[in-house]
Each structure stands twice: as C-alpha cells, then as structure tokens.
Amino acid sequence: MEEIISKLKKLVSTSDKIVAFTGAGFSAESGISTFRGAGGLWSKYDPSIYADINYFIKDPSYYWSFIRDERYPTLKKAKPNDGHYALVELERYGKLYRVITQNIDGFHQIAGSSDVIELHGNSRNVNCMNCEKNYNMDDVFKKLEKDIPPRCSCGGVLKPATVLFGEPLPQYALEMAKLASKNCDMFLVLGSSLVVYPAASLPRIAKKNGAKLVIINIDPTPLDHIADIVINDSASKVLTAVINGGLNE
Ligand code: OAD
After folding, report:
1. What strands, in cross-sheet order, belong to the sheet with 96-101?
2. Least crowded by CB within 10 Å, which of 22, 183, 191, 215?
3. What's the rounded Cα separation, in Å, for the pair 18 and 40?
4. 78 lines ligand 1 (CB under 6 A)
5. pLDDT over 70 percentage in the chain
C-alpha cells in the first residue's frame, strides 16, 4: 500500500489540473449508504420504482416515502468526512481544477470546495413540477408526515431537485463537466461504481485527451483496465494519506 500511495503522491505532485470525480462511495464514511456494493440501497429499494421519473409521474408517493424514511433523515445527521476536507486541501495547493460530483448531499460545498459541478442535482432543494417554484427541503420535510406527495401553493406536485433515472442531466453542468474532463491532466475517480451514464463517460473523455486516470474505489469498476492507477480501498483514507505530510511542489 505504501508504494502505491507514494506513486499516487508523485503523480498528484506533478499534476496541475486535477479533476476529482466523486460518487456515493465518497460519502459512505459520512454515514450515507451507497447504491451499489455492500449494503447498497438498490438491494433494498427497486430503482425502477423509487428512482425513476416515469414511476414518479405515475405515483410520486414511493420516491417521497424513500426521502422521508431513508434519505433525508440520514442526510440530516451526516457531515462531510476527511475525504471532503482533503479535496479542499488539494485546492489550497492549487492542484484541483474542478470537483465533479454525482452526489446530491452538498458536502463538497459545506466542506469548502469552491468549484463543484453537480451532475445529479442537490437534494436540499425542491421544485414544483407545475410552476417551478423553489422550496427548501427542510421546510418540505416537515410536511411529509401528513402530505405525501407534498404540493406547491399552486397545487402542483413537488419534486426534489435531483435527477431520477429517465431524466436528462442538467445541461450546463454536463457541458462544464465534459469540458473539465477534456482539459484536466489527472482525473481522479473517488468512490463510484462507474456504471451510470452519462457521468461514467467522463473518465474515458479525460483519458482520451491525455489525462492520467486514477480510480480509488473499494470494488473493481468497468474502467479499471484503462486506468493508470487503481486502488481498491477507502477513497477518503487514501486521499488523506496522499495529502498528509504535504506534496512535493
Ligand atoms: P454506487 O453506489 O453505484 O457506487 C459506489 C461505489 O463506492 C461502490 O463501487 C463501492 O465499492 C464504493 N465504495 C463504498 N465505500 C467506499 C469508500 N469508503 N471508499 C471508496 N469506495 C467506496 O454510487 P455511484 O457510482 O455514485 O443516481 O452511483 C451513480 C449513480 O447511481 C448515483 O448518482 C445515483 C445512483 O443510482 C441516480 O439515482 C440517478
């Protein structure tokens, strides 16, 4: 392990434009369940019912009960972990180009990362599907005991400002993410199974445009074969070990 950490430290030290690409595994140590891998949410909840836009339109009560009983109570208790703070440190070194995240917990911003591209939205915000009025999830959550699905003052159904399966990604975020992937010199995958597209196309874009690809994930991913370094361990632990003791400038 020491040898691979030292190889990664050298690579980070010689890179100037690092993209950190985070997935659910990066927030696992904050106490938020992943979707896949050991104990993943999709082994308990069928995503075609609990996370699909067509099902949501047919019956939004499943998704809202998933938010009420599972997702939001966990989020409210959780905090950014050492990995989030290690990325802030990497930004202080002037090494971090962008954070691109599939996570909807807002932890990168809370930890202090300044340039975060959210590909799948943010679960702290809620929108009306009819008039597009915005609400805060804290306020909406209070109503969930009685009102599922919660409704807007106009009568429209409310939906968290997150991307469900079958929905397009926010176009601007996706374009920014593609651009960052093209222009970076190192693409660092942190805790993602790399099976959900279009997000999982970004490491390929980076690699094709000459960046070094590093994957830190507990389980193997379908892109391991094109990576320069693969480490099957805790992303937060590895990142902290790389930053500890400083980088060689
Ligand atoms: P997944 O749940 O698919 O993958 C998380 C990965 O993190 C797994 O491969 C685990 O092995 C790994 N892992 C767990 N703990 C870890 C740790 N401490 N350090 C490093 N790796 C760890 O999560 P994503 O790839 O983010 O989308 O999933 C992508 C999208 O699929 C999500 O944004 C969500 C989901 O369905 C939607 O709901 C639209």
Report:
1. 116-118, 96-101, 18-22, 186-190, 212-216, 229-231
2. 183
3. 28
4. no
5. 99
For ligand 1, whether the C-beta of 82 sits within 6 Å is: no
DSSP 163: P
Indicate the class that CATH gives domain 33-77+122-162: alpha beta
pLDDT level of residue 249 (50, 70, 90 thresholds): low
**Are β-strands 212-216 and 186-190 bridged in parallel, bridged antiparallel, or unpaired?**
parallel
Q: Where are the domains of the chain?
A: 1-32+80-120+169-249, 33-77+122-162
The mean pLDDT value for 90-98 works out to 96
Nearest CA to ligand 1 atom 26: 23
Query: Per-residue pLDDT tens for 42-55?
Result: 999 999 999 999 99
Q: How far is the CA of 152 from the centre of ligand 1 (A)?
A: 32
**Closest among 223, 60, 45 to 149, alpha carbons compared:** 60
The answer, yes or no, to whether any atom of ligand 1 lies below 6 A from the CB of 196, is yes
Cα 35 to middle of ligand 1, angstroms = 6
CATH class of 1-32+80-120+169-249: alpha beta
Ligand 1 contact, 53 CB (< 6 A): no
